[in-house]
Design brief:
Number of domains: 3
Mean pLDDT: 83
Shape: globular
Order of helices and strands: HEEHEEHHHHHHHEEHHHHHHHHEEHH
Largest sheet: 4 strands, antiparallel
Distance between the termini: 27 Å
Number of helices: 19
Oligomer: single chain
Structural class: alpha+beta
Radius of gyration: 25 Å
Length: about 500
């Protein structure tokens, strides 16, 4: 088992010490470390650290560790920073001032409308992913057990399935509330007030309200309605706090937030978001049902570049909307083919460059995570630095996506009841118009196609003859990817320069 404290200590040393680290954040797979001076970071030592899968240097250095481990290392790194700075005496004040200035500069550079929107979408939905996966898996298990009860194979399970059904459905029935709470927090409001406004959407009593002659339906507008309601509520709350007297703020601010946000939700947002949700669902169904093969080819081929840029976060509300409407999202299985194409590409690289011990070591470390749907180690540690294999990985994803799209086009829709999983880990979450077994069969066909095409495309087109000869040796400079004088940041993890 990896010693997260030891890893954190080695990373802290390689990053130039506590006084060179501005801040530390992490997502599901990587650390993001803001550094004061880039030239003090020992990139080679970072990459040589055990369990580090890839490193992307810069003012915001990214260190790929994989799921689970990254959370532990992030905590231990924060503890190490606190301990080091606590013993630094008066230098801590100087460091804090320098760090604040650097943070302000970084924030200004990264504060574009697109980046801010992506960041906020991520902050709202990423914390929900563990619950989505857990409840989705339980729903999948419950579906299998229910089928056994229906077929008469295990009638005694009828005493178990109701409990699993409640565990799986409770979260999804209140998904709008959780989204609203996170959205309110992200936009500077009080989470519980955001949850109050979002709860109006799913409250059964809303069925008794008629707006413009049309009765409301509980859940109408779903995630999108809750998102809009919570954001509006946050702005109302912030506005009220600016002028409400301190003595009366406790009464005025929350009451005004709920009243304004509530009326706007009931009279406008539920109707507008409901119409938009139906449009999204109908459009996705029409696209894959009418031009499934072509649509799947395009979506599967473009998803890896979207992951690199963070644009894939914009799809999260769409997935959530489709799950609310149909019980599953038909887009995720198509997009998951991108990761499968990359796995096929990485396996081809492994055999083509079998004499390059650094690259093969990186692939061995990153492939298990890839099979479980975590693609960043392979993207940043293998295929992207090599250039062509990244493109051939996209080709594999495109053909895999086309296969899934053809199943959808022929009426055998393949969907996922939750988001956050991919590749092999998606199998327990699969469902579709013809049941879980058919969905699993179609998904398996897509995976195999993506693996094979990614492998074959990389084998034959991933390297020129000169490049292959240059890379396929233990003596290649900087692990055989690119000359260190040109692009040192593209060296894969696991070997010192």
């Amino acid at each position: 088992m990896a010693d997260s404290r030891q890893i954190a200590q080695r990373l802290l040393t390689a990053l130039g010490g506590a006084d060179n680290v501005v801040d530390v954040e992490n997502c599901m797979t990587r650390l993001r470390v803001g550094v004061r001076e880039e030239d003090r970071v020992d990139v080679a030592a970072l990459r040589a650290t055990e369990h580090v899968l890839a490193v992307m240097p810069g003012e915001n250095t990214q260190i790929v560790l994989g799921p689970g481990l990254v959370d532990k290392v992030a905590i231990d790194l924060q503890v190490g920073l606190a301990a080091a700075r606590g013993s630094a005496g008066t230098s801590a004040e100087r460091l804090a001032d320098a760090g604040a200035a650097l943070r302000a500069g970084n924030k200004a550079r990264n504060s574009t409308p697109v980046k801010n929107a992506l960041r906020r979408i991520s902050n709202i939905f990423v914390p929900l992913i563990p619950a989505l996966i857990a409840c989705g898996l339980i729903a999948g298990i419950n579906g299998i057990l229910t089928n056994l009860v229906t077929s008469g194979s295990a009638p005694w399970l009828i005493n178990v399935t109701p409990y699993l059904g409640v565990m799986a459905s409770g979260f999804f029935s209140l998904l709008a509330v959780f989204v609203a709470m996170n959205a309110a927090k992200e936009f500077g409001g009080t989470p519980i007030l955001g949850g109050v406004v979002g709860a109006m959407i799913v409250f059964p009593g809303v069925a008794g309200i008629t707006v413009f002659g049309q009765p409301h339906v509980p859940g109408q507008g779903g995630v999108l309605g809750a998102l809009g309601a919570a954001i509006l509520g946050a702005y109302v709350e912030r506005w009220a706090r600016r002028w409400a007297p301190d003595v009366l703020a406790l009464f005025i601010v929350p009451t005004l937030t709920v009243l304004v946000g509530g009326f706007a939700t009931l009279f406008f947002l539920m109707t507008a978001a409901g119409g938009l949700s139906i449009l999204i669902g109908d459009s996705a169904t029409w696209l894959l049902g009418t031009a499934g093969g072509l649509a799947g080819f395009v979506l599967g081929g473009l998803f890896l570049p979207m992951v690199m840029t963070g644009m894939h976060q914009t799809l999260t509300p769409i997935h959530a909307t489709l799950i609310e409407q149909n019980g599953y999202t038909i887009l995720l299985p198509v997009l998951a083919m991108a990761g499968a194409g990359q796995i096929g590409s990485a396996i081809a690289v492994f055999f083509r460059l079998r004499r390059n011990t650094s690259i093969t070591k990186t692939i061995k470390s990153a492939l298990p995570a890839g099979f479980l749907g975590v693609g960043e180690p392979l993207i940043y540690g293998v295929t992207l630095p090599l250039g062509r294999p990244f493109i051939t990985a996209c080709v594999g994803g495109a053909f895999g996506g086309a296969v899934i799209g053809l199943f959808d086009q022929f009426g055998y829709t393949i969907g996922s009841v939750a988001i956050g999983a991919s590749d092999l880990s998606l199998f327990p979450l699969l469902d579709g118009s013809h049941g879980k077994a058919v969905a699993a069969l179609g998904y398996a066909c897509g995976l195999l196609t993506a693996y094979v095409v990614g492998f074959v495309a990389t084998w034959f087109f991933g390297f020129s003859a000169e490049r292959l000869a240059e890379l396929n040796t233990d003596e290649t400079v900087d692990a055989g990817l690119v000359p260190a004088s040109e692009v040192p940041e593209l060296v894969p993890a696991g070997r010192a320069t």
